[in-house]
Design a protein that fits this description.
Elements lengths: L7 H15 L4 E4 L14 H29 L2 E6 L12 H25 L1 E8 L13 H10 L8 H12 L9 E4 L7
Helix pairs in contact: 1-2, 2-3
Length: 190
């Protein structure tokens, strides 16, 4: 179901549709993200705001939509897809990294608040470079080319690699909460 994660009503409608179709929500994977990299000195404030809206507020809207259901049923699993950038910022990625640092903190806090008391498991999956459309969000063609050049020798992760990490976390026995998974390409040095 197409959903704009920056639109709270859209996210609520998605969860309502899942409830109607499947009778409940056991797992939420917050995976939407954008990465319009740019040097801070360019002050691309609209891009910064959009990153916060998608990368952080979108997650909060998803959590807000499913948490009451999971609390009522006494179980659930929320997976937030962060990034290696949430551990280490990089030039032109300061704001992107900030959103992923915030997501990492949010996920950790969620685990502390929800897992032992409410039996809601929480996982932060932090991929390195993945072969997706994410670099297409870089507004400056020269910067996009530079990013592609710097990573050209790396064999990026495939979407299936990240999906396998998510499956690993959500299929662990109920007594296990996989708090975070850091997954990066073998060739990625940082």
């Amino acid at each position: 179901m197409p959903t704009d994660v920056t639109d709270r009503d859209d996210v609520d409608a998605l969860v309502s549709a899942a409830m109607e179709t499947f009778g409940g929500v056991d797992i939420l994977v917050n995976n939407a993200g954008i990465m319009p990299l740019s040097p801070l000195r360019e002050c691309r404030v609209d891009d910064w705001e959009r990153m916060v809206d998608v990368n952080l507020k979108g997650v909060l809207f998803g959590v807000g939509a499913v948490l009451p259901l999971m609390l009522d049923q006494g179980s659930g699993h929320i997976v937030n897809v962060g990034s290696v950038a949430g551990r280490r910022p990089f030039p032109t990625g300061s704001v992107y990294s900030a959103t992923k640092f915030a997501l990492r903190s949010l996920t950790w806090g969620m685990q502390l608040e929800l897992s032992s008391s409410s039996k809601i498991r929480v996982t932060d999956v932090q991929p390195g470079v993945v072969a997706t459309e994410l670099t297409e969000h870089i507004p400056d063609p020269a910067l996009r080319d530079d990013f592609a050049e710097r990573t050209a020798d790396w064999r990026p992760l495939e979407a299936e690699d990240v999906a396998a990490a998510v499956v690993y976390a959500v299929t662990a026995p109920e007594r296990v909460n996989v708090n975070e998974i850091l997954i990066r390409p073998t060739d990625q040095p940082t």
